[in-house]
Design a protein that fits this description.
Layout: H1 2-5, H2 9-36, E1 39-43, E2 46-49, H3 53-57, E3 62-69, E4 74-80, H4 82-88, H5 92-95, H6 110-122, E5 126-132, E6 141-149, E7 155-161, H7 163-189, E8 193-198, E9 203-206, H8 208-214, H9 218-222, H10 235-240, H11 242-249, E10 255-260, E11 266-277, E12 283-292, H12 294-316, E13 320-325, E14 330-333, H13 335-341, H14 345-348, H15 373-385, E15 387-396, E16 402-413, E17 419-428, H16 430-478, H17 484-512, E18 521-523, H18 525-534, H19 537-542, E19 545-551, E20 558-560, H20 562-581, E21 588-600, E22 603-612, H21 619-624, H22 642-652, E23 656-662, E24 666-674
Parallel strand pairs: 19-21
Antiparallel strand pairs: 1-2, 3-4, 3-7, 5-6, 6-7, 8-9, 8-12, 10-11, 11-12, 13-14, 13-17, 15-16, 16-17, 18-20, 21-22, 22-24, 23-24
Amino acid sequence: MNFIINIPIEFLILCVCTGILCLLGLIYIYRKHLKKNGLQIVSKNGLTFTNHLELFDNLLSGLIVFYHDKKQDNFIISRVNASVERIDQINGKNVVGTKLSSIYPFSNNNELMDMCYQVWETGVSEHKELCIQSSDDTSLRYRDYYIYKLTSGHAVVMFREISQNKRLEKALQEGQKKWKETYHRLKQIMPAGMISCDLDGRIVESNVSFQKMLGYNEKELSQMTHMEITGEEWHNFEAQYIPKQLENKGQSEVYHKKYIRKDNTSFKAEIQTYLIKDDNDKPVSMWSIIQDITEREQILESLHESRAYIENILTSMIDALIVINLDLTIQKVNRALIELTDFEEIDLIGNHISVLMKSVDKEDVIQDHIKTPWLNTLFSKLIQTKTLKNFEMIFSCKSGDPIPVNFFGSTMMDNNDEVVGFLGIARNIKDEKARRERLVQAEKFAALGEVIPGVGHELSQPLNVIKIINQSLLRDIEKDRFHMEDLQQDLNSVIDEVNKMSEIIDHMRIFARSSQNMQKMPVDMKTVIKAALRFFSQQLKNRTIEAKLDIQSNLPLVTADPARLEQMMVNLITNARDSLERSEKTEKIIHIKCYRSNEDNDAVFVAIEVSDNGKGLTEKLAKFIFDPHFTPGTPWNGTGMGIAISKKIVEEHEGRISMQNKKDEGTKFTILLPVKE
């Protein structure tokens, strides 16, 4: 007390003034701070923005400034920004000074008001996602609310619309749920094995198929590493190469390895591994797809064995084999063909077929496959008929020497039944052809034996004429009545008869010559038929067999060897004569018809029919009558190959022969020879 009394009054006044000045300074600093933050207190009822109004209105989030009115015990809106007007479709000027609850009057917004009271009373900011319902929209909308109290005695509600985010989040959750369901379903039904491992190789997950492959259940596998179920010989490979492939490509190459089952047996599998990364592109795990290829390996091994077996068969074949592509290049040959032609395999594979068949002109082979007549005969027939049998052709060996072969061919088809190539088998018939020529000659001589009686009859007539003329001349000389004019006339008659005999002998010589080299020329079939029948005239007369001729006039000529065709006719007439000789019929007839035919796609043929009304052939003989390897064991003379040889002669002239046989009614042979106009 004494201390206060003793203080000078001037000092007290100074202290009071100093305090007042300090208080004014604090008030100034505080007001300046408010201005710096964009607010200035104008009254006790509200706030006005003096700075950053543009920033406030352009915020994407909604912003509401409010304060608490104690009299009304409610929150009054001081200001709203443009985002609130846009989002809630309200006029900001109309809501300033109104209750905050007037914007969201519905009961489901009570939680928002509760948050405002909580912040106002405690001063602690609140953040919460709410589902609200506006007055103009009956649909639910989701918002993220931030509420905090200012030191000025006001509070701010800031919110952002998250309805679309919620819908996307819901769709994402539903999608993830479906994906998980699909994934788990796929794990159950997928035939391939699936396994997931962490980066250290510990098994995290496996599907049912993989568990069945190894004989473990899922729990047992989850306690193991991938190396524990892998064959030891594969450890180094997987440790060295697979991580590098995963690092570089994100997945491994497909490779094979052995897995060890629970019972210590093993199986071979095909595997591919994928690296799994998180959102930050950081590797987190590995997924592998595993296929048990035990059955596939067995099939492949079986195929290899079958292929080796087939290759062994092809190599061991005596006949030559050739596989030809559709463009007539050689794809494959066997050892027999190489030995037959002396070519090396490299000389043939990939080259044109003309390497073996010199008559083929490679330039003439275009998209239609065939342009040369020779190829048309072979490959067109193959494409049409799918098979070709007993087709005689000439192969050329490496030295150029010809090799006669019997060709058997067939087409190779794809899954769409389209021709993709040809398969041919060629048999060397050089020796067989020589033997056949000998048989043909033997048959010729046998036929010659059949016609000799007729020839004798033909020769006897001119000989008798010559004999009579000579006897007449001798009598005239003896009686001295020899006249020069009569002598000249008689000698001319002798020359005529000698020419007849010479013609018959020349004909027989031509008929009996070797048929190895045919001499084709334009031939009139009427002449051939009459020449052949001429030899049988006396024989048929002696056997009371009538020969009927029905030959069309103006027949086109055929290009042929007349001697070969005459031999064919002799064989057919001989066959008919022998059939009638065994017949008990009183009227025995050989009927020969010859006429023009256009029956095959407008192609022109000369048709010859030789029929008899004898007993016909037995079923067995009729079945094999054209087979050159079948010996019928007939009781009449000859080799028994006359019909087979006739068929061969017809085929040499690119013709066809057929037979109709009726028991007790006789047989009829029909020959079609092409006319090349």
